[in-house]
Amino acid sequence: MRIGVPKEVKIHEYRVGLVPCSVRELIQAGHEVVMETGAGEGCGFPDEAYTDLGAKVLPTAAAVFETAEMIVKVKEPQPQECAMLREGQLLFTYLHLAPDPIQAEGLIKSKATAIAYETVTGPGNSLPLLAPMSEVAGRMSVQVGSRCLEKESGGRGVLLGGIPGVAPGKVVVIGGGVVGTNAARIAMGMGAEVTILDRSVNRLRVLDELYDGRLRTMYSTQSNVEELLKSADLVVGAVLIPGAAAPKVVTKEMLGLMPKGSVLVDVSIDQGGCFETSRPTTHDKPTYVVDDILHYCVTNMPGAVARTSAMGLNNVTLPFVKELANHGWREALLKDPHLQEGLNVHDGQITYKKVAQALDLPYTPTGEVL
């Protein structure tokens, strides 16, 4: 199969769909790889790192889309990329369609087959292709949140770790999944007082045992969220319903409970955000203020640490890329029910139920497509 990797075009997105070691394995397996020139430069991989392995470098994204049978990306296709997709072509990337009707319309119109990293499942209802980026985003959320708390950034001037004689900052993490666990880990490592909320008591038990009581855990109710907001310096939103729009767990009215200059970091923004006042931002302009509360809602946080992120992502996507290339998308999905869960769009039809519901569009079950 001929696999194409265009350069990412989202603002300040430096990751690449395939790193050189992945390209090497695909070429050794008998496949062709075409790269857009400069696609890997943001991660420190020049064109020569690919051509030395046998990949072909093309001058434009249009040439890559025209040539390739399968497109492998990182972020959701932008409108100009959707326009280059064609009927029968396979797209494998993050999609996050639930809050994005414009992208959905573009993919439907293209009649391409689109498989989303974020809905491919694993054992125990895990999300293996989302996990590494969730780890990165969770760890980054506290890193950027602590920076936002600095006075020159518009924050209230709090050092999360405190100092002897001065209490540490208070961090509230809403959601105890991969993002939330990694956020809590970094916040505790910085010396902050950390509380994590989740609706799974079993998950809270696991976290309590994991951190030997150093992490405060609370069941996520509106009353508990409101109580914690009153003294929170940093709140990390880490709520996820796979494939669906994120629920709003902090309303605009609740902002009035928070100390002036405190910070909200919404890691759920790719799925619409879990704070009512959240709206997507970019690394170019990452923050804005609502009711004296600083909001950080960058939709591609891991793009800021592109090399780490791209390599971590490839570790989990490469086996699926190989299966799709070796067998074609239909046979690969029939062989692997976990990969089958990744199918979101095919031939102008939405094939993922929660996406169809979120966008109020007709739903075609994957089984009918296969």
Give the tags.
34% helix, Rossmann fold, 2 domains, 370 residues, 8-stranded mixed beta sheet, 7-stranded mixed beta sheet, alpha/beta, single chain
Explain the layout of strands and helices.
Blueprint: E1 2-5, H1 20-28, E2 32-36, H2 47-51, E3 56-58, H3 61-67, E4 70-72, H4 79-82, E5 90-93, H5 101-110, E6 113-116, H6 131-148, E7 170-174, H7 178-189, E8 193-198, H8 201-210, E9 216-219, H9 222-229, E10 234-237, E11 263-266, E12 287-290, E13 293-296, H10 306-327, H11 329-335, H12 337-340, E14 343-346, E15 349-350, H13 353-359, H14 366-369
Parallel strand pairs: 1-2, 1-4, 2-3, 4-5, 5-6, 7-8, 7-10, 8-9, 10-11, 11-13
Antiparallel strand pairs: 6-14, 12-13, 14-15
Characterise this structure.
It contains 14 helices and 15 strands. It is α/β, with parallel strands linked by helices. It folds into 2 domains: 2-120 and 306-369, NAD(P)-binding Rossmann-like Domain (Rossmann fold, 3-Layer(aba) Sandwich); 131-299, NAD(P)-binding Rossmann-like Domain (Rossmann fold, 3-Layer(aba) Sandwich). The mean pLDDT is 97.
